[in-house]
What we know:
Layout: E1 14-20, H1 29-39, E2 40-46, H2 55-66, H3 75-83, H4 88-97
Parallel strand pairs: 1-2
Helix pairs in contact: 1-4
Amino acid sequence: MADALALPFQRGAFDIVLAAFSLNHLDDPAAGVREAGRVGNVLVASTYAADDNQPARAAVDQALSEVAWQRPPWYAPMKSAMAAWGTIDRATEVIERGGMRPAARGAARDHVS
């Protein structure tokens, strides 16, 4: 476990950095891309689509509200950061701002090289 913005590894330590559903939790996902690029040659990352309306999310939100759960102060900024990365165009921009070049554009179901 480590800070995604200050990974405890030397430059180029890895061939591949896998960041599944994690960089989208950063205030600035491009900073996480930059750090991943520092320690690895290839970044494989994923996030939820901005228009993803999974029924499980609504069920979790409903269950939490029923037990009087209150959203913590970090929740709104995190949701905003997720939106900054949740479309193909936005993800491409974040990756490029982080100093890397996208190798593919598209969702897994419509992969485009």
